[in-house]
Amino acid sequence: MAEAPLVEIRDLSLRYATARGKVQALDRVSLSLGRGSAMGLVGESGSGKSSLVLAMLGLLGKGAEISAEGVQFDGQDLLTTAAALRGRRIGMVFQDPAAALNPGMTIGFQIAEPLIQHRHMPERDALARAVALLTEVGVPRAESVARSYPHQLSGGMKQRAVIATALACEPELLLLDEPTTALDVTVEAQILDLLDRLRRQRGVSLLLVSHNLGIVDRLCDSVTVLYAGRVVEQGGTDAILGAPRHPYTRGLLAALPQADEGKLSRLTPIPGGLPDLTIPDPGCNFRARCAFAVDACVHPQPVTGVGGHMVRCHRAEAVRTLPLPVDTGARSITRKPDLARPLLQGTELSRTFRMGGALSFDFRKGLPRIVPATEVVAVDNVSFHVGRGEVLGLVGESGCGKSTLGRLALRLLAASAGRISLDGKAVPASPDREFRRRAQIVFQNPDSSLNPRHTVAQALRWPVVRFGIAKGAAADREVDRLLELVRLPPTYRSRYPHQMSGGEKQRIGIARALASRPDFLVCDEAVSALDVSVQAAVLNLLADLRDELGLAYLFISHDIGVIAHVADRIAVMYRGAIVEQGDAAQVLAPPYHPYTEALLSSVPLVGSKSRSLHRVRLAGDASAVPPAGGCRFAPRCPRHMGSICDTVEPPVRLGAEGHQIACHQPMEALAAIPPALGRVA
Amino acid sequence: MSAAIAMPAWRRLPLGLTLGGTIVAIVLVLAVIGPWIVPYEPDAFSMRERLHPPSAAHWFGTDEFGRDVFSRVLAGAHYSLIMGFGATGISLAIGVPLGMVAAFHRGWVDEAIMRGVDLMISIPPVLLGLLILATTEPGVAKTVISVGIVYVPIMTRLSRAVALGLLAEDFVDAARARGDGAIRILWREILPNAWPPIIVETALRITFAILLGSALSFLGLGTQPPASEWGLMIAEGRPFIEEAPWIALAPGLCLCLLLIMVNMVGEGLRDLLDPRLQGRGHG
Question: Which residue in B has a C-alpha nearest to residue A437's C-alpha?
């Protein structure tokens, strides 16, 4: 680029004082960002990407030591002028829009506030400008939205309002810290489109922090990969994501389950965890986890490269053609799922939740009246079945009822209506011990799923004893066997949850579920809280356990990539109902339910830029209330057929081999939809 | 069972626990052996030695009847300890199970327990203590029971709130998925995690119980004169606060010291019982 870059960071280092000593959060990070360009900052949790953003904004707390050759913003020293620049020439958007907005102020005023504060604009003009900004970021009926409070808006609308606030003073740079991580995938696609449009129309530069490589690929033209505070690879997006050269970047891409790759046999996890940042390693700090490490890696590594593609690895060229080692695991037996008779079957399950107390006061019509509570149907007349050794993937956006369905299937929540049967035998509302033994659950959050006061041995031993599998010394041996099953050494017996990493905790959660020797597991977002390298290892483990033990999974996830990777069959849920169900390959290819089509085309895929995909964007989000009696997807449906969709419940159309789609469109029309993923699984 | 207590963590005792525990232990020992080691008869009048300031003969001076304040403080220590620990023990024993059961069962059980608690909490503690005591003959045991009952609502509310938060954790759902019953879930999953806030509250409650017990004594509805309960002594020393401040100051400072040390023990115990504060196993 001929002109001077907008942002130029040279050798920025950052150290935090913590209870365990000084932590080297950033180690001589350099990057430059031109006007109107977009850079992605990627890395796993703990890599220092958020610290870098906070350092640029001057928002690091006390106890942070910054040193740098230079941090320039348009020729000014950012380290001394950040307070004057942020909010004016630098806008920022953080991850959680709910936390970024003040619940006590109207949206309009929050957008107008920087104009009043920084530009001394009269309040009336500032509010008018706020409405114009809301319109620009794609908010319909901007005047009424400007007068509403944050709690009256959905997550996507809130994030649009935050972006409008950041844009108020016409900044030249937007810092985006995981701007779509808290949002559903169809809403995320809308926000990404918006950011892309803003960049083109306003020429604003973007610095996007994300753990999601697909988003970076969609939005950015250059990428900086951070590992443990150091830049390991830097260059154009296509070069880095298309032909990564640092072993870490290659590992990240190999560990990523992609929706368009379908059911791969194995992912490639990156072994180990982050190095101890209190003792910075002068050599390559990735070498402990690197498959290609040699003795010379202990020496400091410079960042070198040609054509703007910089790599911090002296072996990048030498190992470029070598494949990453494959995690072979214990693939001794490959069981075919027995689909003849279902293991667990749920029939016409429903669950309603009451909002608030049974009776409440309504003050809306003058005198207070006692009104019965409103009810929300979380799961509405859903039928599903899971075969022996089969993985049923349940995918849908937040609030669609997928977790509720998982809990209904285990009788952890009482169903309002419907039946559950295991091996053809009905399961009563309070099931017997045998059902409890055979059906278990793995949770999303490894911090919440283990009792912090129990050691691993205590957590694993109790279910073994409770279900009469072993007693005394035999139970201790069983604990060792369980640890071995989840690939952890027996020394972990005496560990408390806080002494383990997220991936290790998740393994213990899995081991605890396996302790009763179940044959059905509900995995409720079991890998969603993990970094991609760890996620790959846990997904491989779950696949191995299924092969070894013949387990069946109800695998709940919002991540279509993960679902496509693990599932034999997929069920797509929308607002409490399953709208499409069938074999994984059937669901991921036309004919689609219009919602499935939108969901799949919203997924940011690495490498999708080169393919000209047809993109379907949904308006609004899943809170759009459907008309009574009609199709629940009708208000957002891009293939809306007219009044029939609003008034008549859609029929279930049957495709090949049990493929079911609930839609008024005939199967032929649905089959004519072009594939939403670039290549068909 | 509290699994956490059996941890190999004794080498890392928090400083507050060591210091506070030592002093509370000394006070405990003195309270037990006090009546035998006092230099003077605590209740013996000596009109010639009225209102003497502290000296080698009378470490804490003498009061308006010439009684040795040091002996009286020593002889009265056990009242405060019985009041503090006994009353708090009673409120713990009733309040914690009530709160846990209310949190676990929700619904009408919760409503019934918590509305009853609301009813009790709406009456000021001193008034409630007075109500209980006024209907019966005053005495130490009755004071302890009354103060204990007065603090039941606070313990119930606290343990319910703590349990409600913990019951939303996934490990409780894991226990439910095993079919564990209410008692087992409360005992094994909830109670060990609920201790830290309850212990801190208990330490605070002990101090309040001692003070409330003293207040009731002052009102004539607890320990009766001439017993040397500390609160009673402070009340009796009040008229002489200008000419002989040591009469009220000596038991007052002892009370202060005891309360601070009990609090330190509470906080130290909380840290000790938290496995997260024992350093990490790796890294």
Answer: B178
User: Is A499's CB within 8 Å of B282's CB?
Assistant: yes
Q: What is the pTM of this model?
A: 0.82
The pLDDT of residue A95 is 83
Minimal Cα–Cα distance from A455 to chain B, Å? 9
The tokens describing B168, both together, are 């939303």
> Among the listed ranges A333-347, A631-645, B70-84, which one has the minimum average pLDDT value?
A333-347
Burial class (CB in 10 A: 0-12, 13-18, 19+), B9: middle
Question: Is residue A235 helix, strand or coil?
Answer: strand
CB contacts < 8 A, A to B, total 69
pLDDT (mean) for A559-582 = 91
Residues of A in contact with B106 (CB under 8 A): none
Find the DSSP H helices in B191-245.
191-218, 230-237
One-letter amino acid for residue A204 of the chain: V
Closest of B219, B109, B202, B192 to residue B152, by C-alpha: B202
B29 vs B58, B75, B77, B228, B257, CA distance in Å? 21, 12, 10, 17, 15
Closest approach of A288 to chain B, Cα-based (Å): 14
Give this complex's ipTM: 0.79
What chain B residue is nearest to A275 in terms of C-alpha separation? B283
Query: Which part of chain A has CATH 3.40.50.300?
Result: 342-569
Q: Is B173–A441 a contact, with Cβ atoms under 8 angstroms apart?
A: yes
Of A410, A451, A516, the CB nearest to B171: A451
Q: For residues B192 and A468, what is the distance between their CA atoms, to the nearest angstrom?
A: 25
Would you mind telling me the total number of residues written for chain B in this entry? Answer: 283
Mean pLDDT of all residues in chain B?
A: 81
Task: Answer yes or no: are the C-beta atoms of A655 and A591 closer than 8 Å.
Answer: yes
- CATH number for the segment(s) A342-569: 3.40.50.300
Is B177–A440 a contact, with Cβ atoms under 8 angstroms apart?
yes
Q: Domain B13-32+62-275's class?
A: mainly alpha
B179, B192, B275: residue with CB nearest A498 = B275
Answer whether B170 sits within 8 Å of A445, measured CB to CB.
Answer: yes
The three-state (H, E, C) secondary structure of A310-374, written as one string: EECCCCCCCCCCCCCCCCCCCCCCCCCCEEEEEEEEEEEEEEEEECCCCEEEECCCCCCEEEECC
Separation between Cα atoms, residue B89 and residue B100, nearest integer Å:
17
What distance in Å separates the CA atoms of residue A88 and residue A82, rounded to the nearest whole number?
10
On whether the CB atoms of residues A325 and A250 are closer than 8 A, the answer is no
For A142-201, the pLDDT digits (tens) are 888 999 998 888 888 888 899 999 988 889 999 999 888 878 888 888 889 889 998 999
Q: How far apart are CA A146 and CA A129, in angstroms?
A: 11
